[in-house]
Amino acid sequence: MNEKIGKVVLAYSGGLDTSVILRWLQDTYGCEVVTFTADLGQGEELAPARAKAESMGVKEIFVEDLRETFVADYVFPMFRANALYEGVYLLGTSIARPLIAKRQIEIAEATGADAVSHGATGKGNDQVRFELGYYALKPDIRVIAPWREWDLTSRTKLIEYAERHQIPVAMDKRGEPPYSTDANLLHISYEGKALEDPWVEPDEDMFTRSVAPEAAPDQPTVVEIEFEAGDPVAVDGERLSPASLLARLNELGGANGVGRADIVENRFVGMKSRGVYETPGGTVLLAARRGIESLTLDRGAAHLKDELMPRYAELVYNGFWFAPEREMIQAAIDKSQKHVSGTVRVKLFKGSATVVGRKSDASLYDEDHATFEHDTVYDQRDAEGFIRLNALRLKLLNRRAR
């Protein structure tokens, strides 16, 4: 903790935690702090973060709009894998960390900084995600993780420190410190406060990106999503940039109560954690992607993808975005997406996103083969030999068991 640090690049949101960290770094290390604030579509005005950094004496301030890069180079590749951690979590926080870490390292090299810092706690996954990213890209970088060093061991102490140093503390509608949240264009998460008891249902006024399913419109919304080589490119016939497309799906999904998840997950560091997530656009996109893949992917490729998916999702969750095994799986997944093109129709209704139509010029679905009516292309007698050959080993096993 007492090593000499000349300049540090801090991943800075302007919120309570990173504002306290900024001041703490200045006081503890006597170093120059460079702030980096990424606009990943969190939906907040970033000018206050710049103003707050300036008021705390920061000379080098980086505020960057990375929304398109985030969706095109991180979210969409992850969605090609249909990645779900533990079957439910769409990895909204996890997928943002490698991009932030990458830009921090690039800024450190550009400004001559010898260290980087983040606001992740010593109990969470984000410390791992950030630091695995840092070390993968710059092995000799020094990392300062205040939550593992200081004596501000609770949110209460953090607030007391902020008040003591006249750092503004945001309050919720009830005049209390807000939930711990992480937001970007893919999702928003909520942790802490009453949510620490997994039996307690979240308050409705906590949610910001979706209406309650029971309060959603009584008429469904039908949306058509067009795909090219595995990635969505248009909504209802309108071609959109990656970030604009995800934002549109967020609006449509959120208005119909789609995308809420209440999860108790297994953190990489070993404990279980309860979090509540809103991922409206991502939930719609996942349903649509699986819809178009059902039409265009060969059975073997589709089933292999489903086998690889949990491993891929775990790598992203645990912070191994820049690891060779994630890149190897990504290459296999991307290879499978060449013909994943076409249009999917999804019905959004009171919390559900249901595929109700799909079409593609690259479709492997053949109505002549699949029909229950008379056909001239499939000889049903061929199935007898197929069944007999597949039954052979079962018959032999049964003979041995007698």
CATH superfamily of the largest domain: Argininosuccinate synthetase, chain A, domain 2
CATH architecture verdict of the largest domain: Alpha-Beta Complex
Number of helices: 12
Mean pLDDT: 94
Strand content bin: 15-25%
CATH fold node name of the largest domain: Argininosuccinate synthetase, chain A, domain 2
| Spatial strand order of the main sheet | 3-2-1-4-5
- Helix coverage percent of residues? 40-55%
How many DSSP-defined strands? 14
User: Element order, helices and strands?
Assistant: EHEHEHHEHEHEEEEEHEEHHHEEHH
Q: How many discrete domains?
A: 2
| Biggest sheet features | 5 strands, parallel
Tell me the radius of gyration.
Answer: 25 Å
List low-confidence stretches. none
Name the shape in a single word: elongated
Distance between the termini: 71 Å
User: Which class of the largest domain in CATH terms?
Assistant: Alpha Beta
Give the class from helix and strand content and strand pairing: alpha/beta
Walkthrough of the structure:
This protein is an alpha/beta fold and 402 residues long. The protein folds into 2 domains: 7-69 and 93-178, HUPs (Rossmann fold); 183-359, Argininosuccinate synthetase, chain A, domain 2 (Alpha-Beta Complex), CATH 3.90.1260. It contains 12 helices and 14 strands. It has a 5-stranded parallel β-sheet, with helices on both faces. The model has no long low-confidence stretch (mean pLDDT 94).
Key attributes of the depicted protein:
single chain, Rossmann fold, five-stranded antiparallel beta sheet, 402 residues, elongated, Argininosuccinate synthetase, chain A, domain 2, five-stranded parallel beta sheet, 14 strands, alpha/beta, 2 domains
